[in-house]
Amino acid sequence: MAKKVFYSFHYAVDAWRASQVRNMGVIEGNAPVSDNDWETVKKGGNAAIEKWIAEQLVGKSCAVVLIGAQTASRKWVIHEIKETWNAKKGVFGVRIHNLRNESGTLGTYGANPLDELTLQNGTRKLSSVAKVYDPAGADSTAVYKTIKDNLANWVEEAITIRNSA
User: What is the pTM of this model?
Assistant: First the structure.
């Protein structure tokens, strides 16, 4: 049975790069949200956003955190990671700064958002258990290929890690 994933990323900055990963067709992910739909959810306040995230995680076995320059500073990305991990689903990150955006520009390497969360005992960061991948490649095309060739395996590995944690 194919695994379904939730994609977590900083929408305003990384939506174009994220769409490249989401459209690879390697794994089934959550359906993209239009700007209008997201604005409607946001108008409902924090409770509405938390409810939307919870609904998006139903039926998913893993969260793929697409990491750009500002991802680690995004409140809702951190919330998505926390909720996914607490629901005993796999979590991992993929750095997407070396994918070109709609203007053909590469991004900037960002902090690891998995460093923002600690495990239940409070002494270890989530990043000490869950992995973050920095895809190899000399250019955006090669980075894309690395992600496409490995994404399904990374999902399986993240689920295995979570099941053993």
Answer: 0.93
